[in-house]
Amino acid sequence: KLKSSKGPNQAGLCWKDYFIADDMTENRFFLSKAYLSFPSYPEVTMNIENRARVESDTPLIQMIQKNREQIPEELKKVFKVSDIRSSVREINGLKGEEVMTHYQQRLSFGRGFESGAWQYLGTLDDPTDSYIYLGLESVDEVNNKALNAPLNQKIVLGLNDFILNNIKISAFNQGKSND
Questions:
Q1: Which of 75, 88, 138, 157 has its CB surrounded by the most CB atoms within 10 Å?
Q2: pLDDT tens digits, residue range 84-102?
């Protein structure tokens, strides 16, 4: 049905001008994914994922540490990797984990780029408490072969924080009414 101009008055999913009613009582595996781009910052891309939690989901910091241990030594010689942030971070009542990393090619005078993520695992058996992931890249890895972000790190972190701080769960998707 068409989305109300006043906003939704029941639990569900919004997509453009449409609304799909869903009372969120079934723990269905589904994935909602949105890609964000910013005209003022064309190189920066963000993606937000929201889905049901599955047993194989691993906490973000643990997963990244494990992946870094498996990076071949040759690749470690090419990039200098520095963590900017790696901690538990609560966003509007959602206690998640954040990792923000700066990558710079060794033997290069370029600035490098940032890659980051924030993850909220949600609850395995509660469909109203779903998995949320936000990822950020400060460089267009396809068209920017030098892998040097045109924006300074402070702007990238500020944009990341602005988006993160605006993640909220609607009252309807928490099982609450609009009263």
A1: 138
A2: 999 999 998 999 999 999 9
What does the DSSP assignment read for the chain? -BPPTT--SSSEEEETTEEEE----S----EEEEEEEETTEEEEEEEEEEE---TT---HHHHHHHHHHTS-HHHHHHEEEEEEEEEEEEETTEEEEEEEEEEEETT--S--EEEEEEEE---TT-TTS-EEEEEEESS-TTT-TT---SS-HHHHHHHHHHHHTT----TGGGT----
The answer to whether residue 76 is domain-embedded is yes
Give this prediction's pTM: 0.77
In a domain, 10, yes or no: no
Q: What is the pLDDT of residues 54-68, one digit of tens each?
A: 889 999 999 999 999
What range defines the domain where residue 93 resides?
27-171
